[in-house]
Structure formats: structure tokens, C-alpha cells
Design a protein that fits this description.
By secondary structure, this protein is an alpha+beta fold. The chain is built from nine helices and 23 strands. The longest helix is centred in the first third of the chain and has 21 residues. The chain is globular and about 75 Å long. It starts with 5 loop residues before the first helix and ends with a strand.
């Protein structure tokens, strides 16, 4: 007797459940008590799934899905470290995959579904970016899929999530298209494709294809969950990673911005650029930069715009670049190495495999009132309040007294979420 794997049985169960769901959705609703020949007499009620289900058994459908997944897998690459899938993105040999919390080594060994082996170089990517681009170190016969915008899909249309468990082993799950929705993913706006199945960690970097083999989306890790990002969103995120802002985050774990009008009044002085965000483990944090530091000078010149720090991400003759900061009432000197790279594995002991977490600072935010200054600043429950106006928070009671005090110029707070610390002005 032929045996079936649990995954195969699960696919059959999913197909059967989807048939029932589609049938329920297609069932005509009427208050007319007279029986009516609803059947499939109306052409617009004949779905591809109904035709397919009439032509064969569930096993035939599963075999059909498997053939579709085999065709789709030609556009996929298996990455050995981390063990996940990548999608061949263009004819130039670019491969795109989901970012990971551990980060990537500089070079990744990979294999195609056809058995070819290759080495890929990882492009620098900000720590919270949902996707990462890799480039083949030597030419290979890249085979990118055609892309289809989700706006051309119809609700209830079958799609196939396909990924590789090894270079020669494909996995797939069919699902029904339920629409698309705007989301924020790693701090960037994106469009998510919703299916009747929820993407999971083992699908990371996999592709979502229609029955014609067109690419609909890529499975990516977004703020603690897995979503399906449309190709247009992936392209926009990859373009952002090449910008000055994206490269500064990728190389130093640092974000800078112009002061808002309220912040200029709050801080006073002539400085116009502030350290907005610092990531733990990044070189900016290691060199002592903090959210709320005002950047007064760079390499002996005054700083008026964020772009004045462009040399940080450009080839430089000097190995170390100098910053002049104002922190409260004090002027502080800092240095940053030129052409740095943010190592997401900085806290990992490579000899033991241990990943060490630093001691948490501040106090946990239990809740945030809707439409409050804290909510508008992006603070949410579970974040940690680290400092207020440059002073560390020693107790929850102290923080409450300071924040509830009346100050027309507001309070500049530093908040931490995961490895990210950022600053914002809370005004009454």
C-alpha cells in the first residue's frame, strides 16, 4: 500500500477545506422558498477550481499543484547559511531573500533546483530591513520569473507559496487570494498579499506564484511575523537600502535627521541635525553616540544638513572620521571608522555559539493612550523608556513625575524596542 507523507496529506486537507469554503462563498443567497437550479449554469459562476475539481480527484489536484511548484522552483535558490530560500530577482543574477535576526555572512553558498552550486555576495542592509539582496560572484544562468501585480488578481484565485527545503527538495502550500493591504514592514511602507494560509518561518524567502508561473510576492520577516510583500514593495525597499539613510543604518546602526520645529525650540542653539536612532551592536553605539545627540560638526566643518555626513558611506582616504556633538550643555567629541559595516552577529561568541543579550535599560511601557503624543511618536506597549531629557530613568515613579510635569517645550524621550533605541519629543 502506497504511503503518504504528512505534508502531502495536509495539502489534500487544505484543498478539500478550500473547496468547501469556495462552495460556501459561491452558494447563491435568496429568500425565495422555491427551489432554483443554481448549479453552474451561469458562466460567471464557473471558477477554475470548480472545473479542476470536476476533472479529477483530490490526488490529481495535489499532483497538479506539485507540477506547478516544480515549475516555480526554477526561479528559486537554496541558501545554505541561513538555510532558507531566495528568489532569482533579475537577469543580472540578483537574488532576494528575507532578512533574518542573525544577519548574514559576507558570502553565502547556494544551490539551484537544477543542482548547480554558486557563491553569493550579500549587500549591506539595515538591521530592520525585511529583505536582503545577494549578487552572484560568478555568472550563472539566472532565470527570473515574470511578475504580476496583485491588482490583476481576483478574490478566490488560487496561488502557490513555493520554497526550497534543500537545493533539490521543493515544498509548497496552495492558498486562496483574499486581497492586499498596506502595511509597515521594518519601518518602511509596503503592500502585503493576504492568502487563506498564513506564511511561516520555514517559507522565508520563498515566492508566491499564480498558475501561470508569474511571481506575485515574496515571503519576508516583518516585525515579528511573516508577510507576503509584492515585488513593487520589495524593489522600493531595496532601493532605499542603497540610499544614504539606508547605508548609514546598514554600516553604523545609525539614523540622523533634521530637528523638527518643536525640537529646535526645545533644544535651543544653532544645531539642526540630531541623532534620531542608534542600534545596539552597531558602531555608532560602540563609539558612544546616543539618540538626542546634536551634531554640531563633522571633520572640522559645521553640520547643517544630514547629507553633510555623506562621506561616512563613501570611500575615504582617512580611516577615522571625527564628529562634534552637543549633549545637553556639554560638547562631546566622537569618532567613527570610515566604510564600516554593521555586524548583526557582534554579540555572538563564534567559538561557543552563545548569543549574549545586554541588560535592558529603563522601564516597560504598559500601555499608550490612543492619539496621544506618545502614540504619535510611535511608542507602544512593551517598549522601554530609557531616558527623559538626557537623564536616565531610575524608577517608574520618577519617570511619571517628570513626564507629567508642565513644560511648554515638551520632553525629549529615548525609547528602546528590541535592539533599536530612538528619540522623540513629547509635547503637551
Amino acid at each position: 500500500m502506497e504511503s503518504r507523507s504528512p505534508a502531502y496529506v495536509a495539502v489534500l486537507a487544505l484543498i478539500a477545506g478550500s473547496i468547501l469554503m469556495v462552495g460556501s462563498l459561491m452558494k447563491p443567497k435568496s429568500d425565495d422558498p422555491e427551489p432554483r437550479n443554481s448549479g453552474f449554469s451561469r458562466p460567471e459562476m464557473i471558477s477554475p477550481l470548480s472545473i479542476l475539481s470536476q476533472r479529477g480527484s483530490l490526488e490529481d489536484m495535489a499532483a497538479y499543484f506539485s507540477r506547478l511548484a516544480s515549475n516555480a522552483s526554477r526561479h528559486l535558490i537554496f541558501l545554505e547559511d541561513p538555510a532558507q530560500t531566495g528568489v532569482v530577482w533579475d537577469a543580472a543574477g540578483t537574488v532576494v531573500t528575507s532578512n533574518t535576526r542573525r544577519g548574514f555572512p559576507n558570502d553565502v553558498k547556494a544551490g539551484t533546483s537544477g543542482g548547480a552550486e554558486l557563491m553569493l555576495e550579500v549587500s549591506a542592509s539595515p538591521p530592520e530591513a525585511p529583505v536582503v539582496a545577494l549578487t552572484a560572484l560568478s555568472g550563472f544562468a539566472s532565470n527570473p520569473a515574470l511578475r504580476l501585480r496583485s491588482t490583476f488578481l481576483e478574490h478566490g484565485e488560487w496561488l502557490l507559496i513555493t520554497w526550497l527545503s534543500s537545493p533539490l527538495e521543493k515544498s509548497f502550500v496552495p492558498g486562496l487570494y483574499l486581497g492586499s493591504r498596506p502595511v509597515e514592514c521594518g519601518g518602511r511602507p509596503a503592500l502585503d498579499v493576504s492568502l487563506s494560509v498564513t506564511p511561516a518561518a520555514e517559507m522565508a524567502g520563498g515566492g508566491v506564484f499564480d498558475f501561470d508561473g508569474s511571481l506575485i510576492g515574496l515571503v519576508a520577516h516583518c516585525d515579528g511575523r511573516y508577510l507576503i510583500l509584492v515585488p513593487e514593495s520589495v524593489d522600493e525597499i531595496l532601493e532605499w537600502t542603497k540610499s544614504f539613510e539606508g547605508r548609514l543604518l546598514a554600516q553604523y546602526g545609525l539614523e540622523i535627521s533634521l530637528l523638527t520645529a518643536g525640537e529646535r525650540e526645545h533644544f535651543g542653539g544653532e544645531e539642526t541635525v540630531v541623532v534620531r536612532e542608534v542600534w545596539q551592536g552597531g558602531l555608532a553605539e560602540q563609539e558612544g553616540l546616543r539618540p538626542g545627540d546634536l551634531i554640531a560638526g563633522f571633520e572640522g566643518r559645521p553640520v547643517k544638513m544630514p547629507d553633510d555626513l555623506q562621506p561616512l558611506v563613501l570611500p575615504a582616504a582617512r580611516e577615522v572620521l571625527e564628529l562634534k556633538l552637543r549633549r545637553g550643555r556639554r560638547m562631546v567629541a566622537a569618532t567613527l571608522p570610515a566604510q564600516a559595516h554593521f555586524d548583526g552577529n557582534a554579540a555572538e561568541n563564534t567559538s561557543t555559539g552563545l548569543v549574549l543579550a545586554s541588560e535592558p535599560e529603563g522601564f516597560v511601557v504598559e500601555s499608550v493612550v490612543d492619539d496621544s503624543a506618545a502614540a504619535r511618536a510611535g511608542i507602544r506597549s512593551g517598549d522601554r523608556l530609557v531616558s527623559v531629557d538626557g537623564s536616565g530613568v531610575r524608577s517608574a515613579a520618577q519617570a511619571r513625575v517628570v513626564l507629567e510635569g508642565r513644560d511648554a517645550k515638551g520632553r525629549f524621550v529615548v525609547v528602546q524596542r528590541g535592539a533599536r533605541q530612538w528619540g522623540a519629543l513629547l509635547t503637551p
